[in-house]
Write a structure and sequence with these properties.
Two copies of one chain form a homodimer.
Chain A (H helix, E strand, L loop, with lengths): L2 E3 L5 E3 L1 E2 L2 E2 L30 E2 L2 H7 L7 E4 L9 H11 L5 E5 L1 E2 L7 H5 L3 E4 L2 E2 L2 H7 L7 E3 L2 H10 L6 E6 L1 E2 L5 E2 L14 H6 L2 E6 L19 E4 L20 H16 L8 E4 L3 H17 L3 E8 L1 H8 L3 E9 L2 H9 L3 E3 L2 H5 L13 E4 L3 E3 L4 E2 L15 H7 L2 E5 L3 E2 L2 E2 L1 E2 L14 E4 L2 E4 L4 H6 L10 H12 L7 E10 L5 E8 L4
Parallel strand pairs in A: 5-16, 6-7, 6-12, 7-9, 8-10, 11-30, 12-15, 15-16, 17-18, 17-21, 18-19, 19-20, 21-24, 22-27, 24-28
Antiparallel strand pairs in A: 1-2, 3-4, 13-14, 22-23, 25-26, 28-29, 30-31
C-alpha cells in the first residue's frame, strides 16, 4: 500500500476501506469543498402522530437495514442507556454490518462488544473511551475506525462525508412531535448540541425519551421539524453517570502550583484582561486553574466576555457573580451546571457546529483567548496525543482538543513529566492528535516549555519568574527519570484513523497483538 | 397560453416567466420533492474580521451583480430602513435586474418604486403591503410577482425553488462575527425567525446593524456560522413603525359582540378546554376575542398549552398570569411584547420553518386548536381573499393565513358583511388566497356561517344560541344592502401568482389599467 508522509511526519496510506485519504498538510491548509448534504423534507399532516410504541417499531419504520449508519450523542456520558438499548434491538432483529457513528462511547458501552463480535457492528466512527477502544486496538472491528474532533464530526456531516441513515437521539424531555431538550426530566443531561447536525441531516431521526411532556416542550433544543418519530422508554440511562472524578478540583499541592503557574502564564502573555475568553478541560489541574483564574479576575475586577464549557459548577459560579458575561455550553460535566442552563441568564447552549466547525462561516473557538487542555503525551515538536496511551491502546476521544488548540490565541497543554514510570514528554508522541503548530505552551510539574514558533510569546516571557525551560530539556529529564519510553510493538494493520478537524488525516493507530 | 383549472376553479397558465406552474390540487395533495438546497460552507480563520465599512463594500465583496436575488426580512415592518438603504446602494453602483425576495414590503418601501422604474428591481417575490403592491397591479414590474405564505416562502428556500444570492438581514444587536438578535439595541424589533432560512441557505449573508456589541452577542437568534459580513449603519430604521393601529383592541360595540360570539363558537365546538392552543391575527375583532378568551379562561381556570403570535401585549399578559404555558413568537406587533422575549420564561422565539413549513417533518400550525383570521373577501365556497381588494388592487400579503387555516382544528374567519358599500361575503372572491376546504367558520356582524364540509361542527352547533346562518344567505344579504360587487375590469396580463403553501398555484392576479 502506498503511503504519503503528512506535515507532522506521519505515514498516511492513500486509501483505506475504499476511502481515499487526504494527508494533513497544516492547520488551515484545507479549504472546504462545497457542502453537499441537503436537509430532509417531510410531509406530516395535522393529526398525524410521531409516537411509536417501541424501538423495534422505529427500526422497522425507518427502514433500518444491513449496512446502514446509525448515530447517537454522548451527553449522558457513562450514564447512557440509549446506545446499548438501540443496538440490542437492532441485533435482536437480525440486522448486521452496521456502522455506528456516536459522538463518543464510554465504559458503559462495553456492552456493545458482543454485537461487534457477532457482526452486528462492523464499523465505529466516533470517540471510544475505554473498553471499546481497547477492543478496537486488538483488532475486533472489521473496518478501520475513524476518530474526529467535535468540529470535525460536524464538518463530516455537513460536507456529506458521513451520511446518517438513522439518528437515535436521547432526550431527557420531549413532546409527541419531537421537540426536546436535555435540561428537564429525571435524567436531565444538559445541552443537546452534539446531536443537532445528526437531527438536521439524518435521513431519519428518532427521539428516545423517558419523559414525554405536553406539546410544546420548552425550551426546545432540537426542533420537531427534524424529527420523524418519538419513542418513550422506561429509562434513557442514569444521569449520575455524567459525573466523573475529573470534575473535582485537585487538592494535590504540586498540581495546585501548576494551576497558579498557568494563570501567571496567561497574565504574562497579556491576555488576562477585560473582555477575555477561555476554555478549560475537566482535568484536576485545569479545573484548579479555573478557580485560581476566578479569584484573580474577581480580585482585579476583570470581566470576561465568555467562557466555553465542558461546563462545570466552577464556570457557573463565574457566570453568576459576573466574572464572565456569557457561558457557552456544548457539554455539561456535572448536574449543578445543567440546572443552571434553564435558570441563569447568559448561559447559552451551543451546538458543535457553532463551537468548532472549521468549515462553516465562523466558529466560537476562533474567539478564544486561552484554552487549557490535557494530554496523554506531548513531544518536542509540541505535538499532542490525547487518543492513545504509550502502550498503544486507543482509550480516548479527541473532543474539542484540535479545535480549540487551532482557534485559541494561547493554547496551554498541561501534563506531568511522567506517569507511572512512563515519560509523558517525549521525542515523538505515539499518536499525533493535535499538531504542534497549534500549541503554544506546555506546562508540566517540572517547568514550562514555550513553542519556539511563538517568538512573540518567548520574548514576552524573557523576564518571567516562571520556570521556562526548553522542551528538549523537559524530555531529557523525563527520559532520565523513567529510563525512556517503553518499546511499542504494533501489528501492520491500521485500526483507526485520526482525522484532523478539516477532514485530512493527521495520524493512524496500528493494532496490538493480543499477547503484547 | 394554455391554462388549467385548479381545484378551487381558477385558471392557472402552464408557464409564466419560464417557470412551469403546478396548479393547486388540494390542501395536502402535493408531497415534497427531495430538498436540494445545501447549506454553505465557509473558511474563516482565527483573527479574520467580518466587519465591512459600508453596504457598498458588502455589495462588492459578495459579488452581487445583475440578475441576482437579494433577500430581506420585515421584522421592522413599516419602520424598516434597511431595504431602502440597500437598494439605494445597489442602484448607485449601477447594478440592474435584481429580484428582491423580502418577507414583506410596507408603505415605507414606496421608496423602491423609482428603482423599479429604472430597472434596478425587475422582480419581487414577497408580500407587498400598500403602495408597491398597488404599483405592481398597474404593471410596473417587468416580471410576474410571486406571493407566498410564511410557510410557503421557507419551503421555497429549503426545496431550492428560490436561491438567495445575498441576504441583507437587519439586526437590532449584532457582534462582529454576525451573531445577532432583535431583542436588544435602540431599534429592538423582536424575533429574527422570518430570516433564519435566508441565513442558512443564502449564498452570502450580510448582517446590517445599528448596535454592534461585543462578542458573543446574547441571546443569539441568528448564528455566526451563517454570516459572511457585518455592516454597522447609523440606523436600521425606526422601530416605532412596527406598531400599527390594528394592535389596539376595538371599542366598537358591534365588533365586541363579534368577539364574544367567536369565543362562544370555540367553546361550543368543544375546543375551549385545558391544554388548548390558539393564534389570532392583529385585527381589532381578533384582538378583542383574545381579551374575551383570556377572561373566560381565567374565570374557568382553563390553561392553554400555547399561543402563537404575531405577538402583542395581550398574549404576553396571558403568559405572565399562566393562562398559557408557552408563547411562540414568530413576529412581534408591539414593543411591549418584544421586551417580554428577553424577560419572560416560556416566551419562545420561533422560525417560520418551525411555525408553518408544510414540507418539513412537522410544523407548529398542525398543533393549533383554533385560529382567528381576517379577510378582504370571503365567498360561498368559504374561499378567503386576503391579497386583493374588490377593486383588484394587490395590497396585502398572505402571512400565515394559508398555513394556520390548513393546520388548525377550527379556522375562524372574521369579517364584516360589507365595507364601504362593497360586499365582503361574495359569490366568488376576487382572488383565492386560502382555500375553503381549510376554513371552518365565517363570523360576520350579521351571523356566523359554518362550512358544510364540517358536518361534525354543524351538528355540534345545532342547538346553539349563536346566530348560525347559511353562507349563501349572508352573501345575498350583503348583495341586497350593497347592490352587489363592483365590476372588475382587468388586463390580460398576470401581474402576480398566489402560491399555495406547498408551491402549487392557487390563483393569479391580473393587472389593472391605469385609468380604471
Amino acid at each position: 500500500m502506498d503511503a504519503i508522509i503528512n506535515s507532522v511526519g506521519r505515514k498516511i496510506p492513500e486509501e483505506i476501506d475504499g476511502r481515499k485519504l487526504k494527508p494533513y498538510q497544516g492547520a488551515f491548509s484545507t479549504a472546504p469543498e462545497p457542502w453537499k448534504a441537503p436537509m430532509k423534507a417531510g410531509f406530516i399532516k395535522p393529526g398525524e402522530s410521531k409516537i411509536l410504541a417501541s424501538l423495534e417499531e422505529s427500526i422497522k419504520k425507518t427502514g433500518l437495514t444491513d449496512g446502514m449508519t446509525v448515530s447517537f450523542h454522548h451527553h449522558l456520558r457513562n450514564g447512557d442507556g440509549v446506545i446499548n438499548m438501540v443496538m440490542d434491538a437492532i441485533a435482536q432483529m437480525g440486522i448486521k454490518n452496521i456502522r455506528i457513528f456516536p459522538t463518543a462511547l464510554f465504559p458503559v458501552h462495553e456492552h456493545l462488544i458482543p454485537h461487534i463480535e457477532s457482526g452486528v457492528i462492523t464499523s465505529i466512527e466516533g470517540s471510544m473511551n475505554g473498553p471499546v477502544g481497547a477492543a478496537a486496538t486488538y483488532g475486533i472491528l472489521p473496518k478501520c475506525a475513524v476518530l474526529r474532533s467535535h468540529g470535525g464530526r460536524i464538518r463530516a456531516i455537513h460536507s456529506g462525508d458521513v451520511k446518517v441513515d438513522v439518528a437515535f437521539l436521547a432526550a431527557s424531555s420531549a413532546d409527541p412531535y419531537g421537540n426536546c431538550n436535555g435540561v428537564f426530566g429525571p435524567n436531565f443531561f444538559g445541552p443537546v448540541g452534539l446531536a443537532r447536525a445528526d437531527a438536521m441531516f439524518g435521513e431519519h431521526v428518532v427521539i428516545v425519551t423517558d419523559n414525554l411532556v405536553e406539546y410544546p416542550c420548552y425550551p426546545i433544543s432540537i426542533s420537531q421539524k427534524y424529527v420523524d418519530y418519538v419513542v418513550e422508554v422506561p429509562s434513557i440511562g442514569d444521569h449520575a453517570g455524567i459525573v466523573s472524578g475529573t470534575t473535582e478540583v485537585t487538592k494535590d499541592p504540586k498540581q495546585l502550583a501548576m494551576a497558579e503557574q498557568i494563570v501567571k502564564l496567561i497574565e504574562q502573555s497579556g491576555l488576562l484582561k477585560e473582555g477575555m475568553s477561555f476554555q478549560a478541560g475537566a482535568g484536576g489541574v485545569s479545573l484548579a486553574s479555573m478557580k485560581v483564574l476566578h479569584d484573580y479576575m474577581r480580585e482585579k475586577g476583570i470581566h470576561g466576555n465568555f467562557a466555553i464549557g465542558g461546563t462545570t459548577k466552577y464556570l457557573v459560579d463565574m457566570l453568576r457573580d459576573g466574572t464572565i458575561r456569557v457561558l457557552l455550553t456544548g457539554q455539561s460535566f456535572d448536574l449543578e451546571s445543567i440546572e443552571s442552563i434553564a435558570k441563569d441568564y447568559g448561559h447559552q447552549e451551543i451546538t458543535t457546529d457553532f463551537y468548532a466547525n472549521i468549515h462553516n462561516k465562523g466558529c466560537a473557538v476562533n474567539w478564544l483567548d486561552v484554552v487549557i487542555l490535557g494530554a496523554t503525551e506531548v513531544d518536542v515538536d509540541f505535538n499532542v496525543n490525547v487518543n492513545t496511551h504509550s502502550d498503544g491502546k486507543l482509550l480516548h476521544g479527541i473532543g474539542g482538543h484540535q479545535d480549540t488548540a487551532a482557534g485559541a490565541k494561547l493554547t496551554i497543554i498541561v501534563c506531568p513529566l511522567f506517569r507511572k514510570k512512563i515519560p509523558i514528554v517525549r521525542e515523538s508522541v505515539t499518536t499525533v492528535t493535535t499538531p504542534g503548530e497549534t500549541v503554544d505552551a506546555i506546562v508540566t510539574n517540572e517547568g514550562i516549555a514555550i513553542n519556539p514558533r511563538r517568538q512573540d510569546l518567548v520574548k514576552k516571557l524573557q523576564e518571567s519568574d516562571l520556570p521556562i525551560r526548553k522542551i528538549e530539556d523537559l524530555q531529557k529529564q523525563a527520559y532520565e527519570i523513567t529510563g525512556g519510553p517503553p518499546e511499542l510493538v504494533t501489528t501492520d494493520r491500521i485500526i483507526a484513523l485520526i482525522e484532523y478537524r478539516d477532514g485530512s488525516i493527521i495520524d493512524v493507530v496500528r493494532g496490538l497483538k493480543k499477547d503484547s
